[in-house]
Amino acid sequence: LWDVLYTVSVSVSNTGSVAGATVPQLYLGLPQPANEDYTPVKVLRGFQKVLLAPGESQTVTFSLTRRDISYWDTFAQQWIIGSSSIGVLAGFSSRDIHSTTSFSPLTGASAY
């Protein structure tokens, strides 16, 4: 469950003239299960406070474990990695998304 399978990097910049801090957040949009279970539209999977000087940029890297890209199947009573695409969303809150992409983790569903 805790093996790191993927890393996601985002760049954060301070375009202002005053030093500041921000907290970039990483959300995943997990595939919906085939059974009656439902997963949330977005799930928070990482955040990191970043201090930035005026004009400075930093790259923030988030590690995604097997658990991060899985959902609990209540019928099978096990963690499942869905077979379809997983959405990756980065921003400063769940309503302030600045970057999106997606990836397909595995060919076929994986249970453990």
Automatic annotation (TrEMBL):
Keywords: Glycosidase, Hydrolase, Secreted, Signal. Belongs to the glycosyl hydrolase 3 family. It catalyses: Hydrolysis of terminal, non-reducing beta-D-glucosyl residues with release of beta-D-glucose. One of its GO terms (cellular component) is extracellular region. It is found in: Secreted. This is beta-glucosidase. The keyword Thylakoid does not apply. One of its GO terms (biological process) is glucan catabolic process. Beta-glucosidases are one of a number of cellulolytic enzymes involved in the degradation of cellulosic biomass. Catalyzes the last step releasing glucose from the inhibitory cellobiose. Its EC number is 3.2.1.21. It holds the Pfam family Fn3-like. The keyword Hydrolase applies. Residues 22-94 form the Fibronectin type III-like domain. It comes from the Eukaryota.
